[in-house]
Amino acid sequence: MKNDVRTVDERSTGGTSERSGAKGGARRPDPLPISQWPLFASAFLLPPRFTPPRVKNDRRYRNLDKYRFVFWFLSIPLVLYAIFVISPFFQAFYYSLTDWTGFSSDFSFVGLDNYSRLMDDPTFWQSMRNSLFLLVVAPLATLAMGLFFAFMLQAGGRGKKNEAVSGVTGAKFYKIVYFFPQVISVAIIGVVWAAMFDPITGPLNEVLRVAGLDSLTQNWLADPNIALWCVLFVLCWMFVGFYVVLFSAAMGAIPKEIYEAALLDGARRPTTFFRVTLPLIRDTVHTGWIYMGIQALDAFAIVHIMTINKGGPGDSTLVTPVYLYKKAFDSGEAGYATAIGVLLLLVTMAFSVVMMLFSRRERIEY
């Protein structure tokens, strides 16, 4: 009797599976034998009109054919990116292990000698200290000013009827004025500000003299104590307009109802900024901080054009990219210069990773 029951159960189970298989549609295609992989791969890579009929009529090929466009759409830019962006990094690391001069095809492998030399190079460490100073202070000052001006443009106007917040009159014009340095060549900016800081004919000292503040006149770019601060000022001036526009757009996306609720709770503008606006645009601020930090580490053009002897006086304004340039083109030590570049790349990557880790949090939706 038990055997009969088991037989009935097996039949019913088999019937159910057959029916479910019929309902489920066609059977999955058999796995592709390894011997046919080259044929299918070549058919996948070639245009459809060159595909052999035997492969084209195979259901397994039709499943792969759906991804042909995606593959070609992504492969070309990825190959170009690998050739022009990724491969130079490996090439630079290779040359950093040699004594290549940059002007000759003859060089020899020296291993990690360039890196050990960096550890004992006081000029390199001075340039790195200056770069790290700009990395810390430039984003802090630039983003703080950008946030302040953006909030004033978005919420600094007199309150209008039935509006929780309102921007200042002519906000669009001010954004254009702030953004104007972004459309000027960095070479022109360096030349203009070098003339501004000129101790004899520069407008800055001239204004101080006219105002009767002769004691405040300085030899701005020749004083080791303030030359780097002049570079910092120009960097902030260059980029603050970009962040005003960026943060204004982020603040403009915040719903007015949130500000209205804060207003009903009695929040004043400073409280609204720190408790409402800043948390809601935190992701934008983090992105801006990373971008500005990279710009600060790459402060080559301004230092090269504006300062005395490309990093002077002494080494007070020397930053790592300028030191790399001097070693590669003035001293003919391209191998050593690429070692400097590799370390600068590692510092930049470490900075970006740390900033991205700090920015990880639950996304606020509004």
Automatic annotation (TrEMBL):
Organism: Streptomyces tardus
Superkingdom field: Bacteria
Localization in the cell: Cell membrane
Pfam families listed in its UniProt record: BPD_transp_1
Membrane topology: Multi-pass membrane protein
Record's keyword terms, sorted: Cell membrane, Membrane, Transmembrane, Transmembrane helix, Transport
Domain ABC transmembrane type-1: 128-355
Major place of residence: membrane
Residues spanning the membrane: 69-90, 132-155, 176-196, 226-246, 289-308, 334-358
Protein known as: Sugar ABC transporter permease
Protein family per UniProt: Belongs to the binding-protein-dependent transport system permease family.
Database matches in PANTHER family: ABC TRANSPORTER PERMEASE PROTEIN, DIACETYLCHITOBIOSE UPTAKE SYSTEM PERMEASE PROTEIN NGCF
Comp. bias intervals (Basic and acidic residues): 1-12
Any one Gene Ontology cellular component term annotated for this protein: plasma membrane
CDD domains: TM_PBP2
